[in-house]
Amino acid sequence: MRLNIAEVAKRAGVSTATVSRVLNNSPLVSRRTREKVLEVIKELGYVPNHVARSLRSKKTGLVATIIPYSADYVFNFPYFSIFIREVTKRLAEDGYHLLLTTEEPDDDPVRIYRTFLDRKIVDGFIILDLKENDERVKFLKDRMAKFVVVGRAKDCDDLPSVDTDNMSGAYKATSYLLDRGCRRVLFINGPKEHSVSIWRKEGYKAAYKKKGLKIEKSLILNGDFMETSGYELVKNFRGRFDAIFAASDLMAIGALKALKEMNRIVPVMGFDDIPQASMVTPTLSTIRQPIDRVGYEVADSIVSYLEKGEKISKVLDVELIIRESTEVD
Amino acid sequence: MRLNIAEVAKRAGVSTATVSRVLNNSPLVSRRTREKVLEVIKELGYVPNHVARSLRSKKTGLVATIIPYSADYVFNFPYFSIFIREVTKRLAEDGYHLLLTTEEPDDDPVRIYRTFLDRKIVDGFIILDLKENDERVKFLKDRMAKFVVVGRAKDCDDLPSVDTDNMSGAYKATSYLLDRGCRRVLFINGPKEHSVSIWRKEGYKAAYKKKGLKIEKSLILNGDFMETSGYELVKNFRGRFDAIFAASDLMAIGALKALKEMNRIVPVMGFDDIPQASMVTPTLSTIRQPIDRVGYEVADSIVSYLEKGEKISKVLDVELIIRESTEVD
DNA sequence: TTGTAGGCGTTATCAC
DNA sequence: GTGATAACGCCTACAA
């Protein structure tokens, strides 16, 4: 025997329309009818079929996050899992679920987005790893899709977004090093086109300006957030420097390794505050990002967008954490 | 204008049935008709609606993984992300997608499973963090749900499953320490009821037996896989020991910290080979688990189950990695 | 080889 | 307040 709305209706001696009304808390049902229907529902253990609802309502209750294939470091970022947990938790509060998937290599970066939109698999997207002139953003805008980005690109401030205050973070980090008397802070930034890199560079520069110091462009390098790139960039750097500020803890750790091999000691500052930061030797000074709140807020934002059409954007504060790596002398 | 199968049919001058046949590669379509239909499909940019298909076929193409709330360490396990990547990659090969979510705290552990089954949101499940007499397994079996477990419980060997050879791993680790002349290997196992803990304990014991040595039960402790538990267990241990084997790298790292504070040096072996293992000081000897293959195989298994009804189980080899932490003298 | 038509389970629009 | 009934978009007997 099929357990559907018709069966419930039959047993309760009402029409399917009435059952549906009860299910959707419509006020257009008398108290008595509602109670009777609820009783039957409970008795039969009836639960509405989500797919049928989706077909009717044209909403699947699914939000997709697609990890760019190039963005290995997203996965290597130990806090990624906390981010995911907070996202799914917030989504569930409104009955949404997270579809998580990865891009294929050598692939059109918007292929999966197109598939999900064409086949109407998801209601919205969360975009990670934002770049300037991001193809995905362009595509989704074009298709009038609903999405929220993590990060802020300068070319799309009309988008709902959640970001940490990368500029302020880089400013704090750099200022701290300058305050300690350092003058040539080697800045190992992330990839050039990434929105976080752009903001962090601004922060770095702002700190120099504030102190009235001249910025030396050759001190600004671009890594890929991974440990090896921090290691290599320091190892191969031919100029002078008296401190290092890396745009990720992993690169900072790589930098520390390189310094050790080169038998040099200078203050080193990271960014993120991943678990390793407090476990390596020396423990790493860094900028802590509230990754859990980023997860919560981005989920909150996409839900608001989907349910109420509200485009919410937030910038979250970051915190300077001083440990051993900057306290060398 | 709605773009659906009927519209395509109209434009191609055929019936919806024919279009459907073309879409599903039925041989019951003439070459000419097929080409014509495909042409129209291309021209209109028609793509079948996934939800409508799901309703008809009673398959959503979704596989759920639900992270137990208690299993924080799953998230703290840095390789979790690699696991997810491999899972989604393999699922996508057959058109499946991953629904990832977290349990709510203080909640019936099978609540989410029930919801997903009742509402028919997903086709199958991947179960992580398996325990003996696992409630979730019991529930899903009861409901005749399709699922694959990561791990092997002794009470359910009829389930499709993927596991690493935990027993062999623990055997290798313990044997290595015994071969070095250690006799009192403090074994910091995971939580008692976890299937991995049970297998690893077997391996530990087997190594002792093989050497004809007596097993000292007081040397076997239970932690929770996290760093602090390794630290505390060692710090508070009152017996004698001349080596440590921890069932996770994180606990091994905690143990190393405790030893350092206690001014003691003994060989320490971990389990997992997480990234930190090669970054801490001293670098950590450990048992490497092929987490990427676990991801691939578990996805492969659930797809085979869903598509062909085949229950596939696999046990994957692990590898002994010797670094500095065991080479102390 | 192709078409007709019913049904998957729900919701929304009408009437009553 | 409540009940028929027609969609939503697709697939599949069954008939032709």
From TrEMBL, chains A, B:
HTH lacI-type domain ranges (all copies): 3-57
GO MF annotations in UniProt: DNA-binding transcription factor activity; transcription cis-regulatory region binding
Transcription regulation as UniProt keyword: yes
Protein's UniProt keywords contain DNA-binding: yes
CDD domains linked to this entry: HTH_LacI, PBP1_LacI_sugar_binding-like
PROSITE patterns: HTH_LACI_1, HTH_LACI_2
InterPro entries: HTH_LacI (IPR000843), Lambda_DNA-bd_dom_sf (IPR010982), Peripla_BP/Lac1_sug-bd_dom (IPR001761), Peripla_BP_I (IPR028082)
Pfam families: LacI, Peripla_BP_1
Transmembrane segments: none
Keywords: DNA-binding, Transcription, Transcription regulation
Protein name per Swiss-Prot or TrEMBL: Transcriptional regulator, LacI family
